[in-house]
Amino acid sequence: MLKRVTQSFFILCLMISASACARGLPELTDLIEQNSPAVVKINTVERARATRGVPPQYQQQIPDIFRHLLEPRGRERRPAASMGSGFIISDDGYVVTNNHVVDGADQVVVTLTDRREYDAQVIGTDARSDLALLKIEADDLPTVRWGESDELQVGEWVVAIGSPFGLDYSASAGIVSAMGRSIPNESRENYVPFIQTDVAINPGNSGGPLFNLDGEVVGINSQIYTRSGGSIGLSFAIPARLAQDVVAQLRDKGRVDRGWLGVGIQDVDRDMAKAMGLARPSGALVAQVESGAPADEAGILAGDIITRFNGERIVEQGDLPHVVGQTRPGAEVPVDLMRKGKSVRLQVTVGALPGEEEPAQQASVDPSNDIGGRLGLVVEEIPAAVKQRWGVESGVIVKQVVPGKPGARAGLRSGDVVAQLGFEEVKDLEDFRRVAKSLPSDELLPIRFFRGGQPTFRTIQIDE
């Protein structure tokens, strides 16, 4: 009898526990049904390029480390196709996705849930935030609503909708596992305080929306951490607050203006915090101040520890680029810092991040025009601020890239600094024009440029 009562009690406890668990899980069917129509699949194509060998007269001039890149393949390379996700933010056809989804694409096709397909125009891209704004010619489209990413809390439920591995309009759910993650990009820049989640994100989810339980977009899925190529429960999304600002700038002027302070920084360790009179390690330690930069003009010194910028607390060094980058150039803001154990407040006039003056991409340029000459590149002399920041002494800076022309096919972007064309050094604008005019056509040639201060070799070919 006692055994039967015990068993009944145990079963009752399990039922109560299961009921409690069920009540704690979110109901997601309505959220997914209502928002899926505004989520799109994005397919891109980079057209085939010929892979001819390097002329014999140039072969001995190529460093050994690069020769294998320029060897003839004997056949045409197939068009490169890729896919991602995106979402519609206005009923007249503006679509948000990741920059890396459309970067280098010659054709971008947006597919809706009802299988309608549209060729998309790239209005603008921003590599630093990994965001892109597209436009399709359609009306009365379903849209999403932006949410407040700043109000997200660790442990809050979130939902992703996208096309992982090409499986259209798949939904996955999880929780926010951390906020404000600093993940430098390939140029070692860090301007996005990522939302970290354990939502299953895989290749193809890039550019898709991350929803809160109110059905609002609080992030744009951008990256995963993986060793296998698939999800292991670490995914990162661009916060909606930052994305809204970037998208608005791309829509209004085709470029993104960011603040610039001009300092090299590092984290504060325990010993440094104690020496500087801080109760605990926090802030960004200024290791270097660029001469003539906004920080220099404001009186910030190497050895200062920045604890607040424009009222925002700086806990780790990665917090400072996030806050400075989202401050409009020209704004005068307060900076709180510790100097020799004492609190100091300064006023700094924020500068413009070098390389941000021109549109990120000029998608409206007519490739049939002769803009940019044979290479399809509009270039200028390098501004002094860029030379100083990147340590580049010679070359020309790309201000505009014509879609479909050799420069665009080689992967150049606005803001790149071209230092070599073919096998000749480019010192200034006169050099660039002379060398570009003399380059042979229908031959694969090396081109060296700087992006974010980092040197890069690629190949370029003029089809005439």
UniProtKB/TrEMBL annotation:
| EC number of this enzyme | 3.4.21.107
Protein name (Swiss-Prot/TrEMBL): Probable periplasmic serine endoprotease DegP-like
The UniProt keywords, alphabetically, are: Hydrolase, Periplasm, Protease, Repeat, Serine protease, Signal, Stress response
User: Where would you find this protein in the cell?
Assistant: Periplasm
Give the record's family classification. Answer: Belongs to the peptidase S1C family.
Tell me where it mainly resides. periplasm
Q: Which reaction does it catalyse?
A: Acts on substrates that are at least partially unfolded. The cleavage site P1 residue is normally between a pair of hydrophobic residues, such as Val-|-Val
Query: What is the annotated signal peptide range for this record?
Result: 1-22
Q: Which Pfam families match?
A: PDZ_2 (PF13180), Trypsin_2 (PF13365)
Query: InterPro entries this protein is in?
Result: PDZ, PDZ_sf, Pept_S1C_Do, Peptidase_S1_PA, Peptidase_S1C
Q: Which residues form the PDZ domain?
A: 245-316, 364-429
Q: Which principal EC class is assigned to this enzyme?
A: hydrolase
Q: What does this protein do?
A: Might be efficient in the degradation of transiently denatured and unfolded proteins which accumulate in the periplasm following stress conditions.
